[in-house]
Amino acid sequence: MDNMPNTEYFNFKQAMRYLGIQSYTGLKDLINAGLPISIVGKSKKIKKTDIDKFMKVHTVVTTTGKNKHEENL
């Protein structure tokens, strides 16, 4: 990641850049799906290692070319 801060905690904009997503809606979807955030006062931060763990847990391995979510559509 170019120009990513060398920090353990990201603000939402930094987390979006790290994840490669463009909208706050996409980030909110991940938070609603269980991505942990830390709130101190009015400051909201996302821990880099929590992002990595969340993405690892939500990785879908396909064997038929479709993931289970796609099969139910």
UniProtKB/TrEMBL annotation:
Protein name (record) = Helix-turn-helix domain-containing protein
